[in-house]
Every structure is written in structure tokens, then in C-alpha cells.
Amino acid sequence: MPAKSKKSTKKVIVDCSIPVQDKVIDVTSFEKFLHDKIKVNGKCPAPAGAVTINREKTKLTIVFADENSSKRYIKYLTKKFLKKQQLKDYLRVIASSTNSYTLKYYKFEQGDEAEDEE
């Protein structure tokens, strides 16, 4: 009996919990942006069945039907969304594990500016 080939998928999770709690980002608009912008084999929007996007309160799970899809591409699109929303100067995308990203705020030092002006 020949071995059955199993279709492998790639799953990427984007955790937006911190900005969503502060009501800075709307997860539904981010989901729509990803759905409209993700390209698979040069086709935008992606063909049906090639990409699945699931939303769970503050997390988005992107499942690619093809294992060769890049996690880095999701980071690129997330940064593009932040720039479009004019939030790129305040939020950054950090890899929290091998298959997930987290959106976090930049840390700003406030005391240094007052000392430099004197």
C-alpha cells in the first residue's frame, strides 16, 4: 500500500491583546486588512482555501494551506497595517514564539528630554 500524503499547513498567530485592551486597534479591521492583502502565488486576495483567518477575541490565527508560506510575510503585513493606522511609531511586532507574533508598545524614556534641553 502506498503511503498517503498528508497536506501540511502552516499556522501563524498574531496576538493583539495589549492594544485592543487600550482600544487602540480594532481586530475586525485588522482581520479584513489581512484578508484583502494576503497574496498566495501572486494572487491578491488569496484564492479560496489557500488562507484561513480566524479571530478569537484579541488573537488572529492565520492558517496557510501551503507550508512554504512565510511567517515573515505576516509580520510585513502587520507593520503595513500599523503604518496605515498611523500607529507604527507606538507599536512594534515581536516574535513571541516560533509561530506567533505579539504587538507591544515601545518603551519611551521621559526624563532624558528635560535634561538635554538645559
Overview of the molecule:
- The chain is of the alpha+beta class.
- The protein is built from 4 helices and 5 strands.
- It has helices at 17-21, 27-37, 71-84, 111-117; strands at residues 10-15, 51-56, 59-64, 91-97, 100-105.
- The chain has a 5-stranded mixed sheet.
- β2 (51-56) and β3 (59-64) form a beta hairpin.
- α2 crosses α3.
- The longest helix has 14 residues, at 71-84.
- The chain is elongated and about 55 Å long.
Quickly give the structural class: alpha+beta
The number of helical segments is 4
Q: Indicate the percent of residues in helices.
A: 25-40%
| Gyration radius over CA | 18 Å
| Uncertain residue segments | 114-118
**Biggest β-sheet: strands ordered side by side in the sheet:** 2-3-1-5-4
Question: What is the approximate shape?
Answer: elongated
* Percent range for β-strand residues: 25-35%
Give the end-to-end Cα distance, rounded to a whole number of Å: 81 Å
Would you count the extended β strands for me? 5
Summarize the biggest pleated sheet.
Answer: 5 strands, mixed
Average of pLDDT: 86
The helix/strand order is EHHEEHEEH
Organism: Triparma retinervis
GO molecular function: RNA binding; structural constituent of ribosome
Keywords: Ribonucleoprotein, Ribosomal protein
GO cellular component, one term: ribonucleoprotein complex
Blueprint of the fold:
Blueprint (H helix, E strand, L loop, with lengths): L9 E6 L1 H5 L5 H11 L13 E6 L2 E6 L6 H14 L6 E7 L2 E6 L5 H7 L1
Parallel strand pairs: 1-5
Antiparallel strand pairs: 1-3, 2-3, 4-5
Helix pairs in contact: 2-3
